[in-house]
Design goal:
alpha+beta; Beta-Lactamase; Transcription Regulator spoIIAA; 3 domains; five-stranded antiparallel beta sheet; 15 strands; about 45% helix
Length: about 375
């Protein structure tokens, strides 16, 4: 026969089990009566919101909601009692005033007649998750609207992500790029080179930058590419990510500037019919000397010059390679049927030429440019 004492013991045991289950839950479990007052509060609720059970029992559930969200919270609770959607995310407030984001689920508890008695609430702190989602959304928006091409490839070489700029550089849409590897996007030689580069980055575990030529509709263009490995939780390479930038305009500007500097560094000036002058200023290195010779020979041939003056008044020092280039230029001019006149040789340059043993026979040497011009006119 079951006695009252047995029933009380069983009831106490059930309450203890229920309490252990509640306090062992990873969710904040809160019960609220129809007036909106808190009637039950587990250990995880204390962890999430900072209040102890003794501090919060009997208080309104509104104590967990920011002032600006209380009207919305009350409307939501009324909607829950009417049987409307029971889940949602809310901006809540802890005892210390810190705001957190929680994901809530509500269940209406009813009596034996079906009438609502209270509302059981489950809350999970998703502040970090929400912040991560905001960051991901921000980075996604930045990548999608970036003028730079951005992509990511998995360990198998297939593209996991491609923004509009990167896909456009291939003449495709992002949807057409994702899922394809380099062998499906490029010719075999280029794809194999890109694959080797990815393997180097994965093996080295560091970023690498290089310049690549455009393909397809963008052939002839130049792209700067930065690629780096993205590591997974275990330290393995989860993806190879990359950023590309079209530097064609910059490369063309650099080439034009180099050409301009080359022309300015070795200008060829027509003074009169059949007479050209090349004034040289500053330091002449081997590269400039070769450009000088090429410019000189091209000018003599195009203008059918009869005399060329190389004025080195502005050149302070020359080495053996530069002196040899000057003399080679003079000999080449003579082979084209023109006379080579070297003017403006200073003392230091003269000593260098003599010390190096260069043969100046066949080359007219004069003190200055004026003397060179007068000599050419007399001839």
């Amino acid at each position: 026969m079951v006695t009252d004492e047995d029933l009380r013991a069983e009831l106490a045991r059930l309450r203890r089990r229920s309490r252990l289950r509640r306090d062992g839950s990873s969710l904040a479990l809160i019960e609220v009566d129809l007036r909106g007052e808190i009637t039950a509060w587990n250990h995880q609720a204390e962890v999430v919101f900072g209040w102890t059970e003794a501090e919060v029992l009997g208080q309104s559930i509104a104590v967990l909601v920011t002032p600006g969200g209380r009207a919305r919270s009350e409307a939501h609770m009324l909607a829950v009692l009417r049987g409307e959607p029971r889940t949602g995310r809310w901006c809540n407030v802890r005892k210390d005033g810190a705001q957190i984001v929680c994901e809530w689920n509500h269940t209406v508890l009813r009596d034996e007649h079906g009438a609502p008695e209270s509302v059981a609430c489950e809350a999970r702190d998703v502040t970090a998750e929400a912040a991560s989602q905001r960051r991901q959304a921000l980075m996604q928006a930045l990548a999608d609207h970036s003028p730079l091409g951005i992509f990511a490839k998995g360990p198998d070489g297939r593209h996991l992500y491609a923004n509009a700029a990167f896909a456009d550089s291939l003449g495709r849409t992002p949807e057409e790029v994702v899922g394809l590897d380099d062998f499906a996007l490029f010719e075999p030689g280029i794809a194999a080179d890109l694959r080797r580069n990815d393997e180097q980055i994965a093996a080295g575990g560091r970023a690498m930058a290089r310049e690549d030529a455009g393909v397809g509709p963008h052939a002839g263009r130049t792209y700067w590419t930065l690629k780096f490995p993205l590591l997974g939780e275990s330290g393995e390479v989860a993806a190879i990510c990359g950023i590309i930038h079209d530097i064609s305009a910059r490369k063309q500007a650099e080439l034009a500037r180099e050409q301009l500097l080359a022309e300015l560094s070795s200008p060829l000036i027509p003074l009169a019919d059949g007479l050209l002058v090349m004034p040289l200023i500053g330091t002449i290195d081997a590269a400039r000397a070769e450009r000088m010779v090429a410019t000189l020979l091209a000018g003599v041939g195009e203008r059918r010059a009869r005399a060329v003056i190389l004025d080195i008044t502005g050149v302070r020092t020359i080495d053996a390679r530069v002196a040899d280039a000057l003399l080679r230029a003079a000999r080449a001019v003579r082979l084209l049927g023109a006379e080579a006149i070297l003017t403006g040789i200073g003392p230091e340059v003269a000593r260098t030429l003599i010390g190096l043993g260069f043969d100046l026979r066949g080359v007219v040497t004069l003190a200055d440019l004026r003397a060179g011009v007068e000599h050419a006119r007399r001839r």
